[in-house]
Amino acid sequence: MHALRILLLIIVVVALLGCTMPEKKEEVIKIGIIGPMETKYGIAMKRAAELAAKKINEEGGILGKKIEIVVADTKFNPDVATAEFRRLAQDEKVKVVIGGFSSGIALNMIEVMAETRTLWLGDASSPRLTDKVAQDYEHYKYFFRIVVTNASTFPLDMIEMLDNYLNKELGLNLKKVAIIRDDALWTDDVMKKFKPLLEERGFEIVMDEKVPRGTEDFSAILLEAQKKADVIVPILAHVRGDTLLKQWHDMKIKKLIAGHDLSAIDPDFWNATDGKCFGEIYLADGGAVPTPINEKMVEFINMYEREFGTLPEAYSAYGVYDAVFIYKAAVEMASKDGVKDPFDPDVLVKYLEKFNESNPFESTRGKIAFTKNHDLLWGDEFIRNYVCQWQEGKQVILYPKNKATGEFVKPEWL
Amino acid sequence: MIAEVLVLGTVVGGIWALVASGFSLIFGVARILNFAHGVLFILGAYFTISLNSVLSNFFGKLSLVLSIFLSILLVGFIGLLIYWILLAPIKEYEIMIMLITLALALLVNELILLTFKDISISVPTLIPGKVEILGIPLTYTRIFALLSALSLLIALELFIRKTRIGKSILAVSQDKEAAMLIGINVDRIYSLSMFISAVFAAFGGILYAQIYAVNPETALRVLIYAFAIVILGGLGNVRGSIFAAFIIGYLQVLTSLTLGARWIEIVAMVIIILILIIRPKGLFGVET
What we know:
The complex is a heterodimer. Chain A is an alpha/beta fold. In chain A, the strands form 3 sheets. Chain A has a 7-stranded mixed beta sheet, with helices on both faces. Chain B is built from 11 helices and 2 strands. Chain B has a two-stranded antiparallel ribbon. The longest helix of chain B is centred in the first third of the chain and has 29 residues. Chain B is globular, with a radius of gyration of 19 Å. Chains A and B meet through strand 7, helix 9 and helix 10 of A and helix 1, strand 2 and helix 10 of B.
């Protein structure tokens, strides 16, 4: 009898092993991470995704399946980006693509997304992306903007920064604005809304200078801005702000810099500029600066530092990390409702849409809620850009008041 | 606006003069059209910051000067290696030289991307501070850049005109066969010209990265400027290149102030095409 039981046990174990071994591949959920992997934006995406996968896998995976991260490099080139997106969707058969960077490139990738019906939790700010969702929902519904807010909300943040904060709260009386911006699609979208807003609030645009990617010499532009304007407003993501700040500081340009400078969000910006960014005011996308705004953020930052020995290199880390978790939440909700295939992109679109104003998702950056066109909902309670300043090696949040971690400091030469 | 163009343009013109004179020298002497010249330019800056981060642990403040000096020598040596290994065996074939230096430029660019990633790097300031000239704040770094570029250019001029080996360089550039007949070792002159050319490029890159910044893309932009300058000044004419470098420097600032920064390279390209159509030998002709 005893021997029979053991034999039975062995048969059951072998049968189980036999069933599970060949199917082990099925136990993995592939998540594609796409971005310019030679830049810190891409590196931060990849690392954040790996961290999220590690944490989720340690806790049992998604519906018992382990996450596997597949990385694709856009090389900042639309042709490479579309080919890589296609590779992720068709060859790697990933369940979801996360990332992007550069709206010009994203607008190419979104066509491959629609064609391959791949869920995409994207990083690119142009309104044209979610306009597509609005215009042809069935075709483009797989796109959700999650890493950054719509470029059309940057003007709202910037006008609050200039008018509500710098002018009304600090009494700086800045009226003439010199804009230095990326020669790129997304800043055209920003300007469409920013220009009327500025005029409405009594500002005057005295300079609107487009600079191509790789620009290193800002001296002539800065001198002209010093002559004509009260404040210099950079709107830069592709052009790195460190060179601008270095020349601003070295030449002791007597006007404040306050705008949207993506590179200023990075924690190593102080070292990259040799401390010359002191005094720069910039917008940080929804708390995408290493500041303890909630428990999830603190946990994420600590894990990142432990794993990689550095703070998240770029803003994209926070959004990508959140994206993996929001994907997991949507799949689990679908499964709980007894949906046959909770990984089906058409199903998941419906479940991601459930994270709305009345039912937001708690992320590292605060509450994530989607609008009906799959944009991030903007507002003090949701994801918005905080007004920050670089002070003595530290990133200080100045505005809104309920999130502020310090006071404005004026560089002595201004 | 005139003040800005004069003050800022002179500094940037000085750096371009360094870059273009080296580019022109090696072409004038050895008929080597070096597409990797822009890469040598940025390598100067990349080596400097890498060396400085190591040496600063041992030499403190002196490490930057030491790193700059070592980087320039290192790039000069790389220039020599490029000549010895890649170019010397094919030195009779100008098209091959162009192709191989272009391939090399792309290769090194990819290697820099792999090692340093796609970010801008700056060389730390040697002398902080600024003065106002014609109402324009001019940093000491820029003044240092201009003065050191000019001294190097004068040194090159004296070297070529006054020393025996310098005169040999001139002789080879004028008539290679005749130079051989009077016993000049042409290969040695080629190597020396390549070394000087690389050293000038590296030093230009270091000065540039102190004032502005460099990233992997800078290599191509510098090459475009170098082309525009030597075509404007006359291909192979070092003095012409130096004048043309200042013209391009002023035009660059003027374009940035009037049309906008995005037009600078377009203007450079238009100059290349116009000069090639209207006056192919350049403003100052080709020294023979």
